[in-house]
Amino acid sequence: MKILIVVLFLGVLVSLGSAMKYLMQDRGCTDRMAWALTWRVGLSILLFLFLLLAYALGWISPNMG
User: Which end of the chain is more exposed for a tag (fewer CB within 10 A), N or C?
Assistant: First the structure.
């Protein structure tokens, strides 16, 4: 469970980093940065929905302190 969450989060960070790289390299001439940011948004939504599902099914619980 934790591994899947970490992998999705790392995917979000890698996508964000690649978007920054494309911004510096292409200077707005191609759509690669937009696609990288689209992947980042998609992975973020997937991670959020997965966390909601895992909480609803009792796979994870909040740390109350």
Answer: C
